Amino acid sequence: MGSIASSGSTVITAKTGRLRRRIATAVIGVVLLIVGAGIGVGVLLHGGGPAPRAASLPSAKLPDVSAPSPVLASLSTSAPAPDPGVLKTTLSPLLNAPALGPGVSASVLDVATGDTLIDQGATDPATPASTQKLLTSVAALTELGPSATIPTTAVAGATPGEVVLVGGGDPTLSRKAPSQIYPGAPTLAELARQVHAALPAGTQVSRVVVDNSLFSGPLTAPGWQPDDAPSSYAAPVTAAAVDGARVSPGSTTRSGQPGIDAGAAFADALGAPGATVVLGQAPAGARTLGTVHSAPVERLVEEALSMSDNMLAEALSRQVALARHLPASFEGSAKAVTAVLADAKVDMAGVTLVDGSGLSRLDRVPAGVLAAVVRGASDGDLGNAAGLLSGLPVAGYDGTLADRGDSDPKTYPGSVRAKTGTLLGVHALAGTVVTEDGRLLAFAVLADGSSGSETAAESALDDVATQLARCGCR
What would the pLDDT profile of 307-320 be if each residue is shown by its tens digit? Predict the structure, then answer.
């Protein structure tokens, strides 16, 4: 991303209070050793008789250590904002780079004041690709709350030996303990342990039914391409799935039958690998045998954003639909996310949502809406949405921006934190940037008419972010 410098980024210094305690402990230990050694020698020389008086020792003197400095330093409240005219002159050539194609839209906002610094077609609807996950994430954090969890339940079937896995819409449910993919994810092993404890002693599980009825409607969204599901990044969206609908915990390949895979994995966890696995529904009023819960929503949002996890984003949007008493379908979740953001006073003019992940080419979101959502999460206007920020990939460090940075020693980690978006011919970047003067900005750039290489388009977007970070622009 070129050189990114910021005088207002996080500053890390040594904890000298801990050093003071270690030095004190070491000195006292030395004193005790010396005294003990003197006594021991006296005993040896005098055959166990009375020891001579120990020589007086000078009092230990600890070195002077200055008071510890803060480990984290906040942004300066007096950092100057870029001049809009100067910033426009600086960014215009970068926003019109050939690699981005025609019709690039961009929005840059000053987080502290909300002032618009750049408006290049910021109200024009454009294909957002995965930057749409910002909208889904804010809706989930706002509607569900950061600490909410998603349950997966097992209930007794209609006949002895039958167990029903009731999908709750948590794709992080793991075959492995602990999960190799999602930190804090629930495991099939724990659910199976609860089931065995609840069943009559000696019960042999012979049949596993997978209940996907919580979700409704098509398994793929309008605007998804035929080879999108299954692929390495998406699968049919079902209420029951394991390991993000992957065919195995360590695989990048997603499954074409997530529900059946979940049932087979549950049968293995129950110690019944030969059990019949079918799709069906739980009997009305069935007895609960066990329940496990996902990590909190704020952790799920972090995973969905950092690694651009389409299946996790779709699951979160379905949970928003359920909370709004709408069908847990693509259509219902799109309506729910739109309604939650509108209720939060986000101007949704020009927004058309078809799915929760941004994988559909029919999604439309103006750059100005994305920048406004990031700004609202940054300054507290969107309440619980602050969890959005911790999930943004950090340029040159993690997530989908891990390889989009450099080794310039003047670059402070965290200057650019942004969600990426990529489809064929679509490239986007939206997030926060700390300027060279320490001013926090929210930005979004959407280029949905690119015909060049992906590498060239991403490099062009990185140039925009880099210039924002370098900018005094006054």
Answer: 999 999 999 999 99
Return d(Cα 242, Cα 262) in angstroms, integer: 5
Return the pLDDT at 451: 87
Check 130, 137, 174, 306 and give the catalytic one: 130
User: Is 341 within the bounds of a domain?
Assistant: yes
Structural contact between residues 429 and 131, judged by C-beta atoms closer than 8 angstroms = yes
- Tell me whether residue 318 is in a domain: yes
Task: With beta carbons less than 8 A apart as the criterion, state whether 210 and 324 touch.
Answer: no
Q: Is position 308 annotated as part of the catalytic site? A: yes
**404 band by pLDDT with thresholds 50, 70 and 90:** confident
56: in domain: no
CA distance 230 to 78: 51
Residue 287 within a domain: yes
What pLDDT score does 474 carry? Answer: 86
For 121-154, the pLDDT digits (tens) are 999 999 999 999 999 999 999 999 999 999 999 9
Q: Which of 6, 105, 107, 133 is catalytic?
A: 133
pLDDT at residue 16, rounded to an integer: 35
Residues 312/258, Cβ–Cβ less than 8 Å: no
Q: Find, among 188, 428, 190, 148, the residue nearest to 316 by Cα.
A: 148
- What mean pLDDT, rounded, does the chain reach? 87
For the stretch 220-260, pLDDT in tens is: 999 999 999 999 999 999 999 999 999 999 899 999 999 99
Any idea what the CATH number is for the domain that residue 170 is in? 3.50.80.20
Q: Give the range of the structural domain holding residue 349, as residue numbers without chain letter.
A: 84-145+300-470
- The domain spanning residue 353 has which CATH number? 3.40.710.10
Q: Which of 107, 308, 415, 450 is catalytic?
A: 308
Q: With bands split at pLDDT 50, 70 and 90, how would you rate the model's confidence at 65?
A: confident
Told to judge if 345 belongs to the known catalytic residues of this protein, a careful annotator would answer: no
Whether 133 is catalytic is yes
